[in-house]
Write the structure tokens for this entry.
Amino acid sequence: MNKKGLKLLIATLAIVIGTKQVHASSVSISPSQSSITKGNIVKITVRVNSDGGIYTIGGSASCSGAGASGGTDLHFEDLNTSAKSKTFSFNIKPTTTGTITCTTSNVSIRELSKESEYALNNASTTINVVEPAKVTPKEYDSNNNLKSLTIDGQSIEPAFNKDTTEYKLSLDQSVEKINVQASAESGKASVSGTGEKTLSQGENTIEIKVTAENGNEKVYKIIVTVEDKHPISVKIGKNTYTVVKKNNNLIDKLENYEEVTIKIDDQDVIAYKNNKTNVLLVILKDKENKLAYYTYNEQTKKYEEYHYIKVGNITLQILPSKTPEKYLKDTLKIQNQTIDYYKISKKNKIGLIYGTNIKTGNTGYYVYDTEEETLSRYYNPEVKVYKQELKQLKEYTMITIGVIAFLSIIVIICSLQKEKKKKHLKTM
């Protein structure tokens, strides 16, 4: 190697060694993503490194561009630590497309081995901001037509057409159940309302719903009329009802009632009897085909709507009552019913309900708490004392009557004896 080459090698080594000494401490700035979508948040991290322990750090970092701005102070001071790195971070959110430039400024550091602060070379980075990728919306199938609609062994009128949404079917009263089958024209649509259907006498409306992939719904109706050749009509007030002879689980059965068969107008009717209360229930249907329980008196042939509530373990049949003394009559909406409710004052949250516990047969007032939604049997000490006093009064009255009767008998006997003596003296 000639002298010129040797000199060049020595100079190069000196530069390398000097660079390592100069850059023993450094600062860097980097984003969590180098390319982001407009409107998204990106995290910026600044890191200060040192081969020796860091006593203090000063300076700042900031970003600008693409509608984003933000930054942070690079401040650190701890004379009791020998940490060799320290990180700072902040978030920015671009509002337009373009380029974000992030830089550090006036970064200085004091190391464990240095007596004074010295400046570090600034660092920078860029972030590319782009528009969100355009998403082509998926096209959903809108077909909500039926392909077929059948009832096993029966013919509907008119004949099925996907554009006809209402059909009629008349059946004999002996038919209790039918099986409805339907399929959608589109394989992406769903069908509900099919299967076995229990019928009652009169009109039965069956709805078949077709839901397209896009959510559009279409309802097909089948009005099935079960003809009752000998209907039992009932007039209650201004309304006319029809007695349901066969229940077939059309409405929920009540607890503590057993199914029995009774005669109404010489026809068999399914009824429900409570052996504790002797209450007899039948099912009536109104003109809108709504079913409800009614009490039925076999002697008077009278019907009354059956009202009841179930709270906890108590099922209470609601009965009419006179307003108790010192109470105000009000109404209470509970379990989709409006019933009589008796309270001490309008603002009171606790009141009385009159009825019969269908499990025990006890009839009387029950306390209902509208806030706690609890029901319990009403106990009135005053009533009990009054009953005891009344009982005692009756006992005293009976004793008094007995004493008076006894004394009266003695008086009569004495009078008879005197009269007898007088007659005897006259005859002598």
